[in-house]
Write a structure and sequence with these properties.
Layout (H helix, E strand, L loop, with lengths): L1 H29 L6 E2 L15 H15 L3 E2 L2 E2 L1 E9 L2 E10 L14 E3 L4 E3 L8 E12 L2 E9 L2 E9 L5 E8 L2 E2 L3 E6 L4 E6 L1 E2 L2 E2 L1 E6 L5 E8 L2 E9 L7 E8 L12 E6 L5 E4 L3
Antiparallel strand pairs: 1-20, 2-3, 4-5, 5-8, 6-7, 6-8, 8-9, 9-10, 10-11, 11-12, 13-14, 14-17, 15-16, 17-18, 18-19, 19-20, 20-21, 21-22
Protein name: Antitoxin component YwqK of the YwqJK toxin-antitoxin module
């Protein structure tokens, strides 16, 4: 009897160890911090080709009148669409053009506008080609037949001049964009001749607004984060310099989720070594 009991306990102990190991392995796989290596194809790994090409704009102006009647914008054939909503006795109509061209959204731009064919609405997050189409070409938003906003889109990003009007169609504000970047944005370079970028600081209405990027001199991404109304918000991520072989998180710093949050102090959420191994994580 003792031998049988001993054998049973040994089997139970071994199976328990296996189950425990399997559980730990399962938890490790589901743990988003278990590795700092980032495999997302959408993560920008090198600096964008920039920006604000004045010669390109001149050529576009020459072609604009010629191609507008054919719904060709920036060399791309588009289709027209519209949405309509009734809110508290006011009807809001959006007129826009969109493209079915196969093109991924620019990972550097925070707000990418697209037409959701299922909901019949314009969205700025969660785009995929299976769900809808990127806006591309002229856009107008009207309230009770009065234009209150107009501008151009370029593959889902605001482009050229955008204007805002009051309910009497009197101009209230005007902004200039280049493929999603506000033209007030500040760009610093390691080398002005080769245009190797050091930092891109998005600026709108004289305040930081949008996605921030800092690059190593080899143009690999070093830091990403977001500004809202001049304040750092959300999770800011620093990356190791791996000479463009892969993207490995170095540490994440948690800032306030909403700008101007009182009594919030930023803190380090997690850190990884250069191989992507987790070395610190704050317990919430």
């Amino acid at each position: 009897m003792n031998r049988r009991l001993s054998a049973f306990l040994i089997v139970l102990l071994i199976s328990g160890k296996i189950t425990f190991a399997q559980k730990n392995e399962s938890e490790k796989k589901s743990d988003p911090d278990s590795t700092g290596v980032v495999s997302s194809a959408l993560l920008p790994s090198v600096a964008p080709l920039l920006l604000f090409d004045e010669e390109k704009e001149k050529e576009e102006k020459k072609e604009k009148k010629k191609k507008a009647r054919k719904n060709i914008w920036f060399g791309i054939k588009t289709q027209k669409g519209y949405t309509r909503r009734d809110i508290r006795g006011q009807y809001i109509v959006e007129y826009f053009n969109y493209t079915d061209a196969e093109r991924n959204p620019d990972p550097y731009i925070r707000d990418v506008y697209w037409y959701d064919t299922k909901d019949k609405s314009i969205k700025t997050q969660g785009f995929s080609r299976e769900l809808g189409y990127l806006l591309h070409g002229p856009y107008e938003r009207m309230i009770n037949e009065t234009v209150v906003e107009s501008g151009m889109f370029y593959y889902g990003t605001k482009h050229k001049t955008w204007m805002l009007f009051d309910d009497k169609n009197v101009l209230q504000d005007k902004n200039h964009f280049s493929e999603g970047w506000p033209k007030e944005s500040r760009i610093t370079y390691y080398n002005t001749t080769s245009k190797s970028i050091e930092k891109i600081i998005p600026v709108q209405y004289s305040l930081e607004e949008g996605n921030y990027f800092h690059f190593y001199e080899n143009q690999q991404i070093a830091v990403t984060g977001e500004y809202q109304f001049g304040e750092k918000v959300g999770l800011w991520t620093e990356y190791w310099d791996t000479k463009n072989t892969k993207a490995v998180r170095k540490r994440e710093i948690q800032y306030q989720e909403e700008p101007y949050t009182k009594n919030f102090r930023p803190y380090i959420r997690a850190e990884w070594d250069k191989e992507g191994n987790l070395i610190y994580r704050r317990d919430n």
